[in-house]
Amino acid sequence: MVIQSGESSFGRDSVTRATSPFLPPPVTHRKDCMSAAVKRYRYLRRLFKFEQMDFEFALWQMMYLFVAPQKVYRNFHYRKETKSQFARDDPAFLVLLSFWLFVSSVGFTFVLGLGVYEFCKFLLYVIFVDCIGVGLCVATVLWYVSNKYFLKPNYRGQDVEWGYAFDVHLNAFFPPLIILHVLQLFFYHVFISQDWFIARLFGNTLWLISIGLYIYITFLGYTCLPILHRTQVLLYPLVPLFLTFIVSLASGWNIIRTIMDFYHYRV
Length: 267
What we know:
Number of strands: 0
């Protein structure tokens, strides 16, 4: 009788915790149900609670995306084992990424000579088009392709989470953001924008490294999942990427200057 009473109390405590205030509760609280809606609910709950975010670990991830991205995805495996999901449940990485988007937009404002209104437009473009818009498209396509064509036959019934696919995009987006939106700003007017071959070589190499890192980190994100195979297909775009780099040097095309002109035209 005492044990039954304790179990009843535990059930009431679980319902109380699940229906805490601040955000409306998800549709179901069953332990065996971990739908995308529930995961999204938990993620959004933490988005406004900075004291609960692990910014130190998010900074560690950002650093290792440059030097050893495999270690970042190893942590996703630990999360799957402990929390039954690959996707992040801590929005600290997204918050820090937003900070870098703001800082890089300020840098572009000075380099391109933009006003306050143009700065606001540029910031909105970078956040909602370059980062989120492109990310939604890329994550959705790769989520569909991985579940449709990369899933191992003996893992039917499991799938790649869409939230994880978007996390992979955010991981892959960060190094190009720092290289093309922060680092190259220090060299653009004094070097990259010149008509010299060495300037074109330097700028186009930055572009090659940035896009190459995006493709490679995306590949790592999917190849580390034990339920997928044949993910080496995701590396195939490296071939046309390198060919474009060679053609740009031979034809005198300064890719970075074209990108900067596009950004200036867009705002």
